[in-house]
Amino acid sequence: MGGFGYGDADHGTWRYYEEDAAAQKKANKNPARSLYVFYTTVDLPRATALHTETSVKMDRDATGFVRGAYLYYDLNAGGIPDLAVWEGEGKGPGHLDGPTKTDVRWYRLVLVNIDGAWKILGDDQFGFGCGC
Asked: How far is residue 70's CA from residue 97's CA, in Å, rounded to a whole number?
């Protein structure tokens, strides 16, 4: 699954920086291809959440994104998603030279289903600054 972890870029973003990619992969403590890791005080019916994903093309001029990915996770095998994640792909916010030249997933909105009502759990953006 594409996308980025909290503050970490999609692995495709690092394809030009092999040394940085190796360091980022080594620093990541989450299981491979995971979005989030949850620790609970109760046992869940599954070790891994049921996952579905759909992609929708978007109008860059109207939204700033070329594509949106909808990711749904059923944590308790109840047949209804417990988490919904939307990831936006487009030219991310750059640094000194303006927006990025390639399209990458750089924005994420996370929602949680609480008793049938969707609530915003959080959002995340990847910044392409130089760190200076």
From this structure: 30
Which range has the top average pLDDT, 47-51, 86-90, 101-105, 127-131? 86-90
Q: Which residue from 73, 82, 74, 75 is spatially nearest to 42, judged by alpha carbons?
A: 75
Q: What is the dihedral of CA 93, 96, 101, 102, to 10 degrees?
A: -50
Could you tell me where the beta strands, DSSP code E, fall in the chain? 50-57, 67-74, 83-91, 103-114, 117-125
Structural tokens at position 104: 């990458």
Q: Which residues pair with 89 in a beta bridge?
A: 67, 105
Cβ atoms 120, 84 nearer than 8 A = no
Rounded-to-integer distance, Cα 17 and Cα 74, Å: 35
From the list 101, 96, 118, 120, the residue with the least C-alpha distance to 110 is 120
- 5/103: higher pLDDT: 103
- Asked whether the CA dihedral 76, 78, 83, 88 is positive or negative, the reply is positive
CB hemisphere CA count around 50 (13 angstroms):
10
